[in-house]
Amino acid sequence: MKTITLANGKTIEVECLSCAITSGMIEPDGGTIFESENFHAHQDVAYPVKGLVILASKRHIKCLDELTETERAEYINLLSKIRKSQREVLGIEHVYYFYNEDTTHHFHTWMVPRYEWMDQFGRSVESVRPVLLHARNHMNHGENVSEVRKAIANLADELNRRGPHD
Ligand SMILES: [Zn+2]
Questions:
Q1: Which of these, 105, 102, 82, lies nearest to 152 by C-alpha position?
Q2: C-alpha 163 – ligand 1 centre gap (Å)
Q3: Which residues are found with C-beta within 5 Å of the ion, ligand 1?
Q4: Which of 10, 53, 68, 112 has the greatest number of C-beta atoms within 10 Å?
Q5: Residue 112 Cα to ligand 1 middle (Å)
Q6: What pTM was computed for the model?
Q7: Ligand 1 centroid vs 36 CA: distance in angstroms?
Q8: 10-residue mean pLDDT series, the chain (166 residues)
Q9: Alpha helix (H) ranges present in 7-116?
Q10: CATH superfamily, region 30-162
C-alpha cells in the first residue's frame, strides 16, 4: 500500500497509484490530458517539464505483451496522437520515451520532451533521471509551473478536439 497526499491535504491509502489515477479515484495534479477507453494520459507536475505526458493503461498490467490486440492498437495510436499534439501545440521537436516493466506502478509510458537546458546532463538514457530531478528541485516555481499547467490545458484541448480516431 502507498499513502498518497491529496491536493486538499487528506491522505489515502492506495494499492497502485496508476490504478487510482486511471480510475478517477485520484485527480492527477494538473488534471487529465486525455482519456480513452483503455488508456489515460496525464502529467505528474511534481516534475514540471512542459509537455511531459504519462500514458497509462487502465488495466493493472505490467508487461507490454499483456496488452490485448485492441489495447495495442489504441496504445500506439494514442502515443502518436499525443506526440503530434506536442509538436503542433508546443513546438516540441524531440521526445524521449520511458517505460520499464519492473515498476511498482503499472503499465505507463513517460513521454519526456527534450529541451536545450537538458544538454548539461548529457544525452540519452543516462540524462533522464538528473533532468527530472533538476526539474523537481529547481524548476518548481510559479512561472514555470503555470507554463506547465497551461501546456497541459493546451494539449488537452487539442487532443479532445481531434477526437479519439484522427
Ligand atoms: Zn494498477
A1: 82
A2: 26
A3: 16, 18-19, 60, 106
A4: 53
A5: 21
A6: 0.91
A7: 16
A8: 76 87 88 95 93 97 97 97 97 96 92 96 93 95 94 95 62
A9: 17-22, 69-90
A10: HIT-like (3.30.428.10)
